[in-house]
């Protein structure tokens, strides 16, 4: 006899299943978005990659579909990942709110990709807002917005002149020269038709002869439609050249005012010349010689000449170094801007490497009589500098001026304070406030930064909310506790001057952590509550429980939830929001509980079989009499009967039944006697063939007519109403499944 659960357990199981159905029907399942055909273009093929930008085109369609019910206020949002498929900062491509009543539960809509989209791993997903759901992500796609769709130009050193041929004795550099911000793109460079591995920048160092060209790399799908192929440059490297060099100059160390002519060792009327200083072309220097003038600022450097002509390779000479014999340094040893207070004297000082220097001091452009040392005491405002003359060395008489120093007498001072490090209100847990700038405000309201000169001369007092902070008398203050939150100003005093700074607001977040826990992470049904709680004492606190970022409870420290979603607790601490960890409550998925074997078990008599369950957090097994026989994930069975498993996923219970029968050892009978004595009156098959939904039993009469054709044969042929007009009648049978015929033969009916 087949064992059954008691009446109350059966009622519970039926109710549980009905509630599960109701829960599922109240949700929505949004599918991953799929590419769709653009109805505005010829053909009916969905896109497989996005190559936008050609002729300004940027219109693509996507198919959005779902199961379940979308509420009236719902919006479907299409989001794009980054080029690596990451959704940490998704880009919204599309938002649709007028399809919720769509009975087909799918629609196609147009979208455009952002103009900075370039990559081969972009994915998409769809979000619904009511109810909230996020689809799985789509397959990765090549997506490029091709903002350059015309031929690019390459030239030697980016000169902009696209030569058809370059001949050089040494390496040259080819460079893209007609694309704005060329370094923001990647390129494919080719030499003689073969891609150059690893070269993706906008410049290419060429040391091998060949035919060179480039194009912008829009991926292996889109690059061909970008139409960015460059001109071809035929480069020849390694010719012997003309052996040019710069004739050794009379001297390469010059004094101020001296000149030196540099000239090439050999000339030719067909040649063109270009002179370079420190690798940079000198404008207008196109003859076979060049005059280096020591009167020019920064004449020192390395000089080269390059020749070119139609019959020769471009050739550049070795460098000649020209130096300044008068080179010495002059450094002022004081602040650039200085404040002169009443009765004060300021000292200006000069440090120099000049040989046997002499000094002159100037105020507002006029020489100060009698001041000939390297320092100057100042009692007047003005702009000061020193003139230094080198009396010794190779070139005596060389003169250099120091940088200027501005000395001011202020009308007032301006104190500017700032955060010493990155600060975000209600996120930062500690911060230092400090003096950033001290400006001297002059009579004409202009300001000069005098921080370096006078910052240490001030007396300071920090104030919070207008009240002195005890002991805070330096130019900075360190704040580490939420009790120190408030508005801070700094008062500074120097001599008869008083200044009050700008106000800085400080809202530090507490360094404590806020944790929540739940009795389960799986929501079964309305009758099975999941409780969220926190060990933090919420008495007298202002807080809110949030589901998917929306407030759902503001009064209970332990909160019973009735819907799936992501939950967190937000606590107001000193004006800042302290946010807990998040707990995601998921719907019950009964398919997580699996059995091995997954179907009914047939045992040879005298043997046993282990049935294993997985996917749960706890298990209880019952026999046919509802006796609990195991609490582990597996059960060893050796007797026929119906066994019931109650598996838990957290607090949710899932029921499974498995039937165990004994394998019959008798053969298929070929004779039955239909005489009503209850013995051998029906054709009884072994249980490996009977009561099997996947086994088909067919019986034919002697004329080949079907008398029986059924699956799940119940050992019920012949029925009591069937007549057999002859003494011994022969019938034929076939037993088969989806793979083919299992058995076939004859049945003799004796009456």
TrEMBL record:
Domain of life: Bacteria
Pfam families assigned to the protein according to its UniProt record, in alphabetical order: CHU_C
InterPro entries: Ig-like_dom_sf (IPR036179), Ig-like_fold (IPR013783)
Gene3D superfamilies: Immunoglobulins
Name this protein carries in UniProt: CHU domain-containing protein
Organism: Maribacter polysiphoniae
């Amino acid at each position: 006899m087949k064992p059954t659960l008691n009446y109350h357990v059966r009622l519970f199981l039926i109710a549980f299943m009905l509630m599960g159905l109701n829960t599922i029907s109240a949700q929505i399942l949004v599918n991953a978005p799929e590419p769709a055909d653009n109805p505005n273009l010829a053909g009916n093929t969905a896109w497989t990659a996005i190559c936008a930008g050609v002729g300004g085109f940027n219109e693509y369609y996507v198919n959005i579909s779902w199961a379940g019910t979308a509420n009236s206020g719902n919006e479907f949002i299409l989001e794009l990942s980054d080029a690596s498929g990451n959704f940490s900062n998704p880009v919204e491509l599309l938002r649709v709110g007028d399809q919720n009543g769509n009975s087909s539960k799918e629609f196609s809509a147009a979208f455009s990709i952002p103009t900075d989209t370039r990559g081969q791993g972009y994915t998409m997903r769809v979000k619904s807002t009511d109810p909230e759901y996020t689809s799985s992500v789509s397959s990765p796609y090549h997506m490029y917005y091709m903002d350059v769709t015309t031929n690019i130009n390459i030239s030697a050193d980016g000169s902009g002149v696209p030569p058809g041929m370059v001949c050089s004795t040494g390496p040259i550099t080819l460079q893209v020269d007609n694309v704005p911000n060329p370094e923001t793109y990647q390129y494919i460079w080719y030499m003689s038709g073969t891609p150059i591995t690893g070269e993706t920048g906008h410049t290419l160092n060429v040391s091998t002869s060949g035919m060179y060209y480039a194009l912008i790399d829009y991926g292996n799908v889109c690059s061909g439609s970008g139409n960015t192929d460059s001109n071809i440059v035929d480069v020849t490297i390694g010719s012997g050249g003309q052996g040019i060099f710069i004739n050794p100059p009379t001297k390469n160390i010059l004094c101020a005012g001296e000149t030196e002519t540099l000239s090439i060792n050999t000339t030719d009327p067909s040649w063109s010349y270009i002179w370079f200083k420190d690798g940079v072309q000198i404008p207008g220097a196109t003859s076979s010689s060049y005059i280096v003038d020591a009167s020019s600022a920064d004449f020192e450097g390395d000089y080269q000449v390059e020749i070119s002509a139609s019959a020769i390779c471009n050739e550049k000479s070795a460098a000649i170094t020209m130096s300044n014999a008068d080179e010495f340094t002059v450094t002022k040893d004081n602040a650039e801007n200085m404040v002169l207070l009443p009765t004060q004297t300021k000292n200006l000082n000069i440090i120099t490497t000049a040989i046997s220097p002499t000094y002159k001091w100037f105020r507002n452009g006029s020489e100060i009589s009698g001041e000939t040392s390297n320092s100057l005491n100042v009692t007047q405002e003005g702009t000061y500098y020193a003139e230094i003359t080198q009396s010794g060395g190779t070139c005596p008489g060389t003169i250099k001026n120091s940088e200027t120093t501005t000395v001011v007498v202020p009308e007032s001072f301006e104190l500017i304070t700032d955060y010493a490090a990155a600060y975000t209100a209600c996120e930062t847990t500690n911060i230092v406030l400090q003096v950033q700038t001290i400006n001297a405000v002059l009579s004409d309201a202009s300001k000069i930064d005098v921080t370096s000169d006078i910052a240490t001369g001030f007396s300071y007092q920090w104030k919070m909310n207008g009240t002195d902070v005890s002991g805070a008398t330096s130019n900075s203050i360190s704040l580490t506790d939420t009790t120190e939150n408030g508005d801070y100003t700094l008062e500074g005093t120097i001599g008869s001057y008083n200044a009050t700074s700008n106000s800085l607001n400080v809202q530090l977040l507490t360094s404590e952590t806020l944790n929540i826990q739940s009795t389960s992470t799986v929501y079964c049904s309305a009758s099975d509550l999941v409780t969220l709680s926190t060990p933090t004492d919420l008495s007298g606190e202002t807080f809110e429980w949030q589901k998917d970022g929306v407030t759902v409870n503001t009064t209970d420290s332990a909160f019973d939830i009735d819907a799936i979603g992501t939950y967190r607790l937000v606590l107001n601490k000193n004006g800042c929001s302290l946010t807990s960890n998040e707990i995601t409550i998921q719907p019950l998925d009964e398919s997580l509980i699996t059995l091995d074997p997954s179907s009914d078990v047939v045992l040879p008599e005298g043997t046993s079989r282990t049935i294993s369950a997985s996917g749960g957090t706890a298990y209880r097994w019952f026999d046919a009499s509802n006796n609990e026989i195991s609490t582990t994930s597996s059960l060893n069975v050796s007797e026929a009967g119906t066994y019931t498993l109650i598996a838990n996923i957290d607090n949710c219970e899932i029921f499974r039944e498995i039937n165990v029968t004994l394998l019959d050892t008798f053969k298929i009978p070929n004779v039955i006697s239909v005489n009503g004595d209850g013995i051998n009156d029906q054709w009884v098959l072994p249980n490996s063939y009977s009561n099997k939904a996947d086994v088909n039993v067919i019986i034919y009469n002697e004329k080949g007519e079907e008398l029986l054709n059924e699956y799940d044969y119940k050992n019920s042929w012949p029925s009591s109403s069937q007549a057999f007009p002859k003494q011994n009648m022969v019938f034929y049978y076939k037993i088969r499944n989806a793979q083919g015929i299992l058995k076939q033969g004859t049945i003799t009916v004796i009456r």
